Predict the structure of Oxidoreductase, short-chain dehydrogenase/reductase family.
Amino acid sequence: MEIRDAGIVVTGSSSGIGLALSEALVEKGGNVVGLSRRKTLIPAGSGGGRFRSFQADLSLPEDIAEAFRRIREEGPPVDVLVNNAGWGEFGDMEALPRESWEGMLAVNLAAPFFAIQEVVTAMKKRRRGMIINIASIAGKRGIKGAAAYCATKFGLVGLSASLKEEFREHGIRVSCICPGAVDTPFFDTTSIQPEKRMDTMAVVNAIIAAIAADDDILHEELIICPL
Ligand SMILES: NC(=O)c1ccc[n+]([C@@H]2O[C@H](COP(=O)([O-])OP(=O)(O)OC[C@H]3O[C@@H](n4cnc5c(N)ncnc54)[C@H](OP(=O)(O)O)[C@@H]3O)[C@@H](O)[C@H]2O)c1
């Protein structure tokens, strides 16, 4: 898909991978809408595209519904949805507060499900669309001390695999990206501190390659790790 002038929603645009991705997509001429609780600050004049952001708490289904109502009203039509927002809390499973379990499930797994519901009907009508879910290596391998986070990311990998089959006959591509450790504020407050971390651009470049592929080519699932 041509990125120039494409309507692209990036969740979790205020930080880390989502912020770097939003900047790169705007530079390539995309018409980008970011969603996150904090305001997303993209340097003015950072490219040929446009950027707007709406503040939304994606753990709340009503915030998701309201954000996509505004996007439908104000445009652009959504060609690409990148479900990137997410967070992790680690440690022994018996010590994990119930709110953390519910919070990770809500943002990492339920929010992508609801966001896809918001965009897929229009994508089917236009026979054009792409959904990219940012899962994790924690969605492919069990990690000690990350039971809840892994459960949400394995769920997102499963959701992606199933929707890939459901949507392909409608011309809608579903990709799932599974990064290993990336150098972002994600780890600012976590008990797990990976030694080797990739630059955010490693993941951003993979997402851009998946979007920019020919419309009849699908980058199904990609695991990217530091060597
Ligand atoms: N960093 C890594 O090593 C790594 C590895 C594999 C996968 N991932 C995944 O990559 C994605 C991005 O992570 P990152 O490393 O870029 O982390 P980050 O720098 O902490 O960014 C996380 C983003 O998610 C948003 N977010 C979190 N909770 C939200 C909520 N309730 N409502 C709306 N937005 C919310 C945050 O925005 P607000 O705080 O403004 O709401 C922020 O923009 C996540 O899904 C993460 O699981 C990260």
